[in-house]
Design goal:
With 132 residues, the protein is mainly alpha-helical. The chain has helices at 6-14, 20-30, 37-49, 56-68, 77-88, 93-104, 115-124, and strands spanning 2-3, 33-35, 72-74, 110-112, 129-131. 32% of the residues are buried.
């Protein structure tokens, strides 16, 4: 099994490098691949906030598509699936992933000063956030 780096996923999504993009697609197609939560998080950030500026729902769709491939193994797939759902309901993906981890670990709440996170969590009916 190979662990994929962010740049591999970005090359597949963006097709922005004539040499690397086909190689990345071939690697993903021909090997069992592990994708960590941190790689998913960084990929989402690069595609949304980096030079690509892709719409959030498009990025989440690409990440879900990777997750559905039979040769892909995700780190903590249930936590990632919950984060995808909350992000699709309006939360920032990083915040959703943080809350999903807290919920999975049995925490009582997630403490934060971040008003946007708090509002997003309430809107998505996500894990409880304690406003500080």
């Amino acid at each position: 099994m190979l662990a994929a780096d962010t740049n591999l996923l970005v090359r597949v999504v963006t097709e922005d490098d004539a040499e690397q993009s086909p190689k990345a697609r071939r690697i993903l197609a021909e090997n069992p691949i592990f994708i960590s939560k941190t790689v998913l998080l960084e990929t989402e950030w690069v595609l949304r906030r980096g030079s690509y500026r892709l719409p959030k729902n498009e990025v989440l769709g690409h990440l879900r598509n990777f997750a559905r491939l039979p040769q892909i193994t995700l780190e903590d797939p249930m936590q990632v699936a919950q984060a995808f759902t909350w992000a699709e309901q309006g939360m920032d993906f990083a915040d959703a992933l943080h809350l999903a981890a807290a919920e999975r670990e049995g925490c009582d709440a997630f403490a934060s000063f971040d008003r946007k996170l708090i509002a997003g969590a309430r809107k998505a009916r996500a894990f409880k956030v304690r406003a500080l």
